[in-house]
Design goal:
Layout: H1 16-21, H2 39-55, H3 62-67, H4 73-79, H5 83-102, H6 105-108, H7 113-130, H8 132-140, H9 147-173, H10 182-195, H11 208-223, H12 226-230
Length: 232
């Protein structure tokens, strides 16, 4: 999948100290974890997200993850029986939260098809920007999962895709959106929101909300039926 965050190629891996100091690895991913997990477990997940994003899942060791929470590598196994389960917990939390943000009842109450889709895209984009480090792991480290865990995550992704397909399909059916292949259109929309995880950083010029609103405007230009918009 290439090196995380487009960091320059080098012979050695990024150390926990380098990872901790890099602004490209700072986001709000620590907010994603289940509140039922212990403080140590949540801190381990936050450390793992940054390590996986910087070095990749397979190159990351349990020592790397434990170093940022001042524990021995063996201590990780007290909380997570395997490194793969750490990855799965990150994947599950990220995908479930992303799905929840587009299933928000506020979106359904937004009004017409254009308003609903714009709000959906805006929120989905802002979510990926705000949690861009965890989102990058969720997108690029799927191969590290066991087949069973992979299938579970793919099912959540299918549900998210279906929410967008429904929104686009309704707009086409009622004439607000121009006729188009729904699956192709949704793939393009999702690509806009997701691809930003390769380059976005919170200290950049755009806030998550600003980027969300900008992408929502781009999507409306993609889908709107000009005849309907002009009243023709």
């Amino acid at each position: 999948m290439g090196e995380a965050l487009n960091m320059p190629r080098r012979q050695s891996r990024f150390t926990p100290q380098e990872i901790d100091a890099d602004p490209r690895l700072q986001d709000h991913s620590a907010e994603l974890w289940n509140e039922k997990l212990s403080d140590v477990e949540r801190r381990m997940l936050t450390s793992a997200v940054r390590c996986f994003a910087a070095n990749g899942y397979h190159a990351t060791t349990t020592r790397d993850i434990a170093a940022d929470v001042s524990l021995s590598p063996a201590a990780l196994y007290v909380h997570f029986p395997s490194k793969e389960l750490v990855l799965f917990e990150i994947m599950r939390a990220g995908h479930e939260r992303a799905l929840a943000c587009v299933r928000d009842p506020v979106i359904a109450a937004a009004g017409g098809a254009a308003d609903c889709l714009a709000l959906m895209v805006s929120r989905y984009t802002a979510w990926h920007a705000r949690h861009h480090v965890a989102a990058r792991v969720c997108q690029y480290e799927l191969a590290g999962l066991t087949p069973e865990h992979y299938d579970e995550i793919i099912q959540i992704r299918h549900q998210t895709n279906e929410v967008f397909r429904d929104a686009v399909g309704r707009g086409i059916d009622d004439g607000a959106f121009a006729p188009a292949d729904v699956n192709r259109l949704v793939r393009g929309i999702l690509s806009l929101s997701i691809d930003l995880v390769r380059w976005y950083r919170l200290d950049g010029p755009d806030s998550p909300e600003q980027l969300g609103d900008f992408y929502a405007g781009l999507v409306l230009k993609m889908v709107m039926n000009e005849d309907a918009a002009s009243g023709g």
